[in-house]
Every structure is written in C-alpha cells, then in structure tokens.
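Internal ticket #5521
Category: modeling
Description: The requester needs a full-assembly model to guide mutagenesis choices. All entity lines are attached below as received. Residue total reported by intake: 725.
Assigned to: D.W.
Attached entities:
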Amino acid sequence: MNPISAGASADAEKPAGHPTAAPRTDPADRPMSPVGTPQARVEGPAKVTGSVRYAADEPMENLAFGHVVTSTVSRGRIAGIDVSAAEGMPGVRGVIDHRNAPRLNPEAGSFFGPDGGMHLLQNDEIPCSGRPIALVVAETIEQARAAAAALRVTYEEAPHDTGFSLDHPAGRPAVSFFGEDATIGDVDAELAASPVVVDERYHTPQQHGAAMEPHSATAWWEDGRLQILDSTQGPFLTAMTVATLFSLDPQQVRVRAAHVGGGFGSKSAGCGPQLVLAAMATTVLGRPVRVTLTRKQVFQAVSPRPATDQRIRIGAGTDGRLRALDHAAAFEVSKLAEYLENCTELSNTLYAAPAIRTRRTAVPLDILPPYSVRGPGATPGSFALESAMDEVAERLGMDPLELRLRNEPTVGPVSGLPFSNRNLVPCLREGARRFGWATRDHRPRRRREGRLLVGTGLAATSFSAGALPSSASVTAETDGTFTVAVGATDIGTGARTALTAVAAEALHTGPERIRLVIADSDLGPAWSAGGSRGTTSWSWAITEAAAELRSQLRGAALPLTVTADTTASLGKLPPMERHAYSAVFCETTVDPATGEVRVRRLLGMFAVGRVVNPLLARSQVIGGMITGLSMALHEEGSRDPVTGRHVNADFAGYHIAAHADIPDIEADFVQDYEPGDPSGIKGVGEIGTVGTAAAIANAVWHATGTRRRSLPIRLDRVLEEHPPR
Ligand code: MOS
C-alpha cells in the first residue's frame, strides 16, 4: 500500500500545452537561451495558492505522529523514564527511548565526521541540553504532545562545560575537512618589521539556520524499502546517511523532499533528529510515523553555527601592502561530533602577503553539535578579516577601498595556484561608483544628522566555488518534450527554475518543453543544495546528459534516455583557486541616545559566474545580505552558563532581521564566467551573506569611532561605549 494519496506528486509542474512536434535539436532551430534571462519561479503559482506540500503536509493513511522529548539537563545520565502515565493516555501507541529503540550502526558517520551526533536513543547518557531522549507516538499530534508532557524523566546530573573561548584549555587543532592550516613566509619576522600592526580579537556568537519550515520527517516501510519524506537539503545524501545509520542496503532507502521551506545549512547534515526518530518509530510500530520538531526543538536539537573567537594580526607597510597575515580561529564543537568551521578560508585567498599563517582550533564542549550555517567558516572569518583590514586602513589613514586594491593577488597567496578567474576588483570599483564612495571622508565620527551619527563601510568577500559529483538523466519523449531527472532539491532558492532553463539551453529547446523531476534519492547520486554548489553541480550533470542525448538522437527510436555522472569530468579539472567574489557597501546611522544601529543602505556587487536567472539570483543575494545584516545586528544564540541550556530558543528571544530592520538594498552582478564549468556557473547561495556583517561593523566604526569586534552589535553594547551625553 502506498500511503501517499494520489495526485501528490512532488513534481506536478507539467509542461504547458501538449506539443506534438519532434524534439527540436537542430542548432539552426535553437531558440534564444533562457539562461541569463529573468524567469519567474516555475512553482510560484503553486506556492502562492497553497497547493505545494512540504514534508509535514502530505496526507497519508494510517499515519501516527511522534512528539520528541528532549533532555532538560546539560550532562549526565537518565536515571529513569516512567512511561506508565503516558502510555495510558488517549491515542498513545508507544514510547520509544533508549531501552527499546533500534540499535544504530555505531560506526556510521555523517558526511563530515565519525558521528554527526545522530546516534539518538542508544544509551542513557545525556551529552548536552536539548538532546532527544524519547519519542511519544500517538494517533494525533495533540495526543502525542500531551502524553510527552506526562513522561516522568529523572536524571543523574554531571558537571557540564559549555563555556567557550579561544583560550579554552581543551582547545586542540581542528580536524580538517578542507585543506590544511597554512604557513608561508616568516610571519613573526614580518610582523616585527611592519610599521603598522593590527592585533585584535573578534567574536561571533552561536547562530541558528532558522529556516521558516520546522524540520519534519515521515517514514514508513513499503515493499522492503524505508520510504522517507524529509525536510532535507540533499535527499541523496540523506538516503545514504540513513542507510549507514540503520545498517540498510542503500537501495532500501528512498528519500523525497519535494518542497523545503529554507535550509540555511540546518537541513544539510545528512540526517536530522526528526528523521532518525521517525525511522526508528516506524520500524518499531510498523506504521507510517511523522515527526515534526517544534520551533523550540529546532533551536535545541538542530545544529547551529558554532560561536567563534578569532585573533587576527596584520602587519602592513606604510604603502598599505600587507607584510604578514596571522589568523588564529577557535570555534566550539560538541564532544559528540567533529566539525570544522573553516574561518580562515578567506585569509588564504583574499589578499597577497609574503607571510600568511592560519590556525584552526576546535574547543570540544558539552553542547549540541554545531554544523554548517549560511556561508560556513567564511562568514565569521570574513567578519574578523574584513574588520581587521578596516583597522589597518584606519591606522594608515588610507581609503579602505584603496587598501584592498593594493593587496590584490595574482595567484593564490597560499596555494600558488592560478585563479580560474577573479573579478573582485570590478566588484569593488563598480560598487564604489554606484554607492558614491569617492566623496567619503575616511575619518570617523564626522557626519551627523540631528543626533544621529552616520557612517559608511565596505567589505570585500569571496566564497569558494566548484561543482561536486552528481548524476542526471535526460529523456527525449515521443511528444517532443524532454524529461530531465536529477536528485536536486529546491529549498526555496529557485533551483527548479534555474535547472529548467539550463536544461532547455543544453537541449536547444524552450523551457516549456522541459519536464523537470527532482527531489528524490532514487534519481541517483547528486550533491545537495549546499555549499553554494547546487546549481553548478546539477547543471553540469544535466548538460553532460543532454549533450550525449543530442548526439544519439537523430534517427533514434523514442523515448530515449541518457544518463550522465560528472565524477569523471570533475576529476579532470586542473587544480585552481575557484571562488565567487563580492564587494558590500553599507551606510548606517547610530543613535547615541538609544544605542540603536540602523542600516540605511546596503549595496552589493557580485561576481558569481554566469547568472542563470537574474531575477532569482538577485533575490538570493539580497536574502544573503539580509541574513548578514541579521548576523551583524540581531542574531545571538545564548546559553545560560549555570544550566548550559539555550535561553532564547524561539523567535521572540532569537531575533532574525524582520521587514522593519531591512533598508533599501541594491544588488547587481558584474560580468563573470567560470571557465571550469560547462555553463560558466559558480554559485549565488552564500556569497550575499559573507561580507555583509563586516561592512556594517565598519560603517558603525565610521559613524562612532568605536570598533565593534563582537557580534551582534546590540544597542546595550553601543550604549556601554557611548553613554548618552
Ligand atoms: Mo549551506 S550552510 O552550505 O547548507
């Protein structure tokens, strides 16, 4: 029995009309490519009329609902769970905890480590606050929730360590998943010989992905396969992770994610707690089970971006040329799971210097395992580096724009590799022109409007680019349309629309003839909507399959399907520095009477490779700049040092920038093309976020004359340093 009701296909977007002509494949017949032209979201009408279904929306027969119970202590062990009251409550069908949960493969890891922290309900240990310790399953959500409240859990508490800093004695070299720590030249000698030295610490707090859609998974067994609907950024990665975790053959797991209401990294970790618990429950109870986290549980049990504590030392000559860059970055990890917040990425590639040293330190604590969020590594790293660069400009009395231009490298400063292409300078120059940077007085605290202090700032930024292995298949149908199947996900970014255009271009036809099928692990290996690499990775696979199909098509019997996998092509790429770039400019006001910082203008110029869809790409980089603003001024995951618990696990306490916080934002693209990609694509996912916080902090310095080296720039912090007078 398939509990999914009929007509609930993830990909109901059928091509308009029923063309009957043969497939158009002759170049002479090639319509203008939709790539590079603004295309409205293909699923837009379905979304705004409410007919798309997210993971928790799919109607299903015989569905039971699980409510998660989380630990209220931050370390220790479970002394007892009394289920007697809960089990007798209306509609309750079972309680799953460490005593009856299926055993998971202890060797199973996540994509980034030996244990992504997802070995739930395997023993009585409590490794951190908010840890899922039981699932109560009932006929309705309300019954499950009521029964969960009736569970009596007792603990043996143990002391916990949740306090983080660069100097924490447990700090150790981070396990590296991306490159090694860098050492070129003699950093100490260059620093000692530099006429200008900046040596400062920068701090960013824990941040949450905070996607609008809470994490939900529905799991059921059908014909010997574990069927899953999940809020995931990568159905294929999720299927592989579940297979390993539950010791299943990969063919036994199918994951679908038709529509995902935002990810921001929080749905990228392979397998979230909602899915581990739903898969366990359906295995124990033998019926479909849906587990949806509450908003509070999303904060408590889904991986956040770790707090970082970074020391940057920059030595520069009086001409503004860097002589040394020393970047030591510490970040928190959970004792449960490895992770690398790669804060030093930009320090390896953004500026030329004869001596560069980067060090990454992980501090293991009794906390929820951190993971990727919105430009992982680069975003907190950029805040530190681009703030420090502004401080160098300040000490030199130099235009911060000019400082960047003077330190533009010709090859990768650490790697020595050529850049595939590098259009940071055009972003800086064109952004400066549009923003009106030339008239800026670079001294701080010079502009006032009434009682408001006004300042401007900028930051340069890069984000690594490069496709990852994916497969796709393309079918020429008998009715003249093409079916394009790729295990992509559209997490709200517009991937369906972008891939439809790319497929149309690759098949020399119009988007109306493309039927795109995505969001299903059965479609074959595919990279996730993550790392700003979705569009480039999936497009490459589609392009390869389409080219092969076109070569086979003439005279062939239809339907004809061709499948491609990009692993081999990617392996042939020469090693190069591949990055997207941007320059962000900002104007802020600071009210010295209230401490309030308001961003008045944000302008971003981007070099992101070929822009597949200018309309949606612009939306995406603007969204990125909004989350950068949110990071600069608002977002701060807080733990109570006494209890170790999250104290602001909701949208009341954890403020995400809202409409009223957002100013006039301009974003545009410079001409760019990635030579290593068959379609010239880099990526637009995260580059908008990366530089924005530093640009804002630099503008706040320019307005007030005081550096903000700790995010967010809360008004109470501004008031501490600028008491009203
Ligand atoms: Mo993104 S933070 O790489 O999912």
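Resolution: model delivered.
Comment from assignee: The pocket of dioxothiomolybdenum(VI) ion is lined by residues 233, 263, 265, 268, 372-374, 376, 530-531 (CB under 6 Å).
Ticket closed.
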